[in-house]
Amino acid sequence: IFTLNFILSRGIIFFFPLFFANIFNSENYIIFEQVIAIGNLFVPIATLGFFTMLPKIIKTSEIEFGYKFIKVHLYFIIILLLFFSLIFHEYTIVFLSLIISSFMIISRFFSTSDKINKNRNRALFFETSIYLFFGFFVFVLNFETIKSISYFMIFVPVLYLMLNFLQINKVNLKKYFLKYNWVLFLKSSTPNLFSGFLLILFFQILKVVTPIYFDSNQSYIFLYVFRFSFIVFISYQLLSFYFFSDIVSNKFEIRNKKIFY
């Protein structure tokens, strides 16, 4: 079942943007690829690499504190993203990047957590969710502009904030703003943040800067063709996704140090 779901999810991630390219006009398709790339670059920075710490937190005695610390951080980040999206509403690229980044933060948090807990099929759903969301509005409701779809996407982070409001209590806030806890978290997350960011930087930055230096026709063709590079990573993703929980649970290699003392 997992293999079939994996193939389906990769097919959605690969083919949906190609279908979008034939439905959107060239400007909207270019914007779509740009803001997805910006989101991929922004999310690890905004989350400070904290997602890389989840394997060291989940299923340990540290989950109660560590998991809530990360959730409080995400809560504040999403609030800031939504706030700035209101301010920069007239700036399409900025507005869309902020909304999509908030969506990606939520989906990746749940996807990473589920992979660690070996809920692989649900993790695939969250990983694919942003393309499913766009696909529903494009294929079913016949939306033709990415900005009009983003207005509905706002409800996802808003709903997340509402459902997690009770997490923002005095105890969790006190722990979140404690300098000592920040030192512990950043000491563990920063190396992974930079190493992971550098891996995605090259491929994503091309999508961001191409429309700046080339006209719309050239940018459209490049971004469309560049989508096919995704095929190269499918085998790697299948193995890493399936064995993710086993790899990060290796006591002697990955989790050989405690985060909290």
Q: How many beta-strand segments? A: 0
Overall radius of gyration: 19 Å
Order of helices and strands, N to C? HHHHHHHHHHHHH
Helices, by number, come to 13
Tell me the structural class: mainly alpha
Q: Report the uncertain regions.
A: 251-261
N- and C-termini, Cα separation: 41 Å
Per the principal axes of the C-alpha atoms, what is the gross shape?
globular
- Mean pLDDT rating: 83
Percentage of residues in helical conformation? over 70%
**Major beta-sheet overview:** none
Strand content: under 5%
Description:
The chain has 13 helices and no strands. The chain starts with a helix and ends in a 13-residue tail after the last helix. It has 261 residues and is mainly α. The radius of gyration is 19 Å and the shape is globular. Helices cover 77% and strands 0% of the residues.
Reconstruct the topology from this structure:
Layout: H1 2-23, H2 26-46, H3 54-57, H4 63-87, H5 92-116, H6 120-140, H7 146-153, H8 155-163, H9 170-176, H10 179-213, H11 216-226, H12 234-242, H13 244-248
Short description:
This protein has 261 residues and is mostly helical. It has helices spanning 2-23, 26-46, 54-57, 63-87, 92-116, 120-140, 146-153, 155-163, 170-176, 179-213, 216-226, 234-242, 244-248.
Short key terms for the protein model shown above:
mainly alpha, single chain, 77% helix, 13 helices, globular, disordered C terminus
